[in-house]
Amino acid sequence: MKSGQECFFCPEKVSISTPKFPEKLGLGDRVIVDNFTLFPNLFVFSEFHAVGTLGEQHFTQLNEINGTTWKNAILGSIKYFKAVYNSNKQVKYPSFNFNFLPPSASSILHPHIQIIQDIKPTKIIEELLLKSEQYYKENGSNYWLDLINSEKSLKDRFISENDFMCWIATYSPFGKNELTGIVKLNKTDLTEFTEKEAELFGLEITKALSALFNGRNARSINMAVFLGPVGENHSNHYKINVKIVTRPILVPNYTADVGFMELLHNEPITETSPEDIAKSVKEFF
Ligand SMILES: [Zn+2]
């Protein structure tokens, strides 16, 4: 596919046509880490909402965004999260998100992440932090590490694990083909990640997206990384975790994946069991 002539995220335009950060953040006009360029979002969900381009190519398949590109995106996001936090220590709740291709609600084809930082956590992050702390108080152990151990011993939903991260097919998912990734590090503040840790995280994201591409025929996805607050370490009870769900591509017999159960009853319905999802992505990890 040709580079998008009208695309503001392509290299010819990204450095002239995109908005600039306010001077008070001390980030310069934009944050650039090699092939990743971060700038303020025009259509904000929150006061601090930035968009970052993943690579210079206008169209990339899901399995072609490599680990280095993700690493650059993570390092660039860390700069932003730190700068926002330093401008106001109350704005400490970041999140790192990715809509890929129009079925996921992405209006621009060029792959890009959206990062948000706010005084309040999102509803899900708030609940995850709260329930994780409750679990720790009741059981004296970390829910996320217990979840890894339990899924590992049950085997059926367990996908992959190394020293850095573990992946499982979600037992009770939000969406289709959902994977949960858990970062085992004793850090819940992304801005504390070293360059090596950003590299490992980037590689794991690439692996998971490729495995969904190959094993579940995924072309469009939503991903969210549920981060802990900046400047705090909640790793005794919490762990940074990732959710990825796939979205239906436009085919002749297209049906959307959100019906009355999902939209109005808040009850996600899935066609595939997590056990089958785990089985089909495992071999591609
Ligand atoms: Zn483009």
Would you tell me which CATH topology applies? Answer: HIT family, subunit A
Main sheet specs? 10 strands, antiparallel
The secondary-structure class comes to alpha+beta
* Unreliable residue runs: none
* Small molecules (ligands, ions, cofactors) in the structure: zinc ion
Q: Tally the beta strands.
A: 10
- Under the CATH scheme, the architecture is 2-Layer Sandwich
* The CATH homology group name: HIT-like
**Gross morphology:** globular
Evaluate the radius of gyration. 19 Å
Number of helical runs? 7
Number of domains: 1
> What would the average pLDDT be, to the nearest integer?
95
Helix and strand element order:
HEEEHEEHHEEEHEEHH
Which CATH top level class fits? Alpha Beta
Straight-line N-to-C gap: 28 Å
Major sheet: order of its strands? 1-2-3-5-4-9-10-8-7-6
Keywords:
285 residues, globular, ten-stranded antiparallel β-sheet, HIT family, subunit A, alpha+beta, 7 helices, binds zinc ion, 21% strand
Brief description of this entry?
The chain is α+β, with helices and mostly antiparallel strands. The protein contains seven helices and ten strands. The chain has helices at 11-17, 67-87, 123-139, 143-154, 195-216, 260-265, 274-282, and strands spanning 31-33, 36-40, 48-54, 93-100, 112-118, 158-161, 165-169, 176-183, 220-226, 241-247.
Task: Set down the secondary structure blueprint.
Layout: H1 11-17, E1 31-33, E2 36-40, E3 48-54, H2 67-87, E4 93-100, E5 112-118, H3 123-139, H4 143-154, E6 158-161, E7 165-169, E8 176-183, H5 195-216, E9 220-226, E10 241-247, H6 260-265, H7 274-282
Antiparallel strand pairs: 1-2, 2-3, 3-5, 4-5, 4-9, 6-7, 7-8, 8-10, 9-10
Helix pairs in contact: 2-5, 5-7
